[in-house]
Amino acid sequence: MLWTITALLASYLLGSLPTAYIFGKILKGIDIRKVGSGNVGATNAMRALGRGPGITVLLLDILKGFAAVVFLADYFSGKPVLWQGQNLRIIMGLCCICGHNWTVFLRFKGGKGIATSFGVLLGLALKIEGLGIVIGILIAAWLLVFLIWRIVSLASIVSAIILPVSFIFFKQPFLLVVVSIILCIFVIIRHKSNLSRLFKGKEERLRFK
Fold first, then answer.
1. Which among 33, 159, 188, 199 counts the fewest CB atoms within 10 Å?
2. pLDDT, tens digit (0-9, with 9 covering 90-100), for 44-74
3. Distance CA 63, CA 119 (A)
4. What's the CA gap between 119 and 34, in Å, rounded?
5. Is the dihedral angle over the CA atoms 25, 28, 31, 35 positive or is it negative?
């Protein structure tokens, strides 16, 4: 049990690293929670800090999820934990996403989990057969919605809904299907304010100068 708690806590803490907040403090001395949408994520970092820092935050958030299910899970594989193999990676990935969404370092106010979830899926695709095609579908759906409407939240919500549907259609492992449903619910809950603005036609579009 001690090894299990250590593995899950390590993954959670990795996800909890608030990259957008750190960049905001270092580059501009601002609290990104008090700027723009107040979200501790790549989109708000891009608006508040610029394209370069925003892209860097995005890549680091993706890396957190990837590292949790590949490197951290590799380390704990073979240890006396409750799960082994792909189940361990899936559970650790979920803990990493929870860390990003509800980071202990910022009183449990974090990002919306899109980039970190994508990193988790990328890492799992290296270990679970057939997952690559699902990721391809998600990327295509996200890009299509974003290029048409230029609204990051809308693209993220659509992709989140497609996620469990794709997993079920391509007959992915049961635990992965369950986690994908949980992630879909996470995304919708975290985008509650965005959904309200979308219905009112007031959601901000992301434009590059």
1. 199
2. 999 999 999 999 999 999 999 999 999 999 9
3. 6
4. 26
5. negative
Give the DSSP H or E segment for 208.
Answer: none
Q: Are 180 and 153 in contact (CB under 8 A)?
A: no
pLDDT digits (tens, 9 = 90+) for 2-13: 999 999 999 999
Phi, psi of 181 (to 5 degrees): -65, -40
Q: Residue 6 is which amino acid?
A: T
Of 8, 65, 15, nearest to 40 (Cα)?
15
Is the Cα torsion angle 85, 140, 58, 185 positive or negative in sign? negative
d(CA 123, CA 178): 18
Cα(48)–Cα(35) distance, integer angstroms: 7
Q: How many residues does the chain have?
A: 209
User: CB neighbours of 50 closer than 8 A, spacing ≥ 6?
Assistant: none
Q: What sign has the CA pseudo-torsion 131, 132, 133, 139?
A: positive
Residue 129 exposure: Cα atoms within 13 Å on the Cβ side: 0
Burial of 148 (0-12, 13-18, 19+ CB in 10 A): exposed
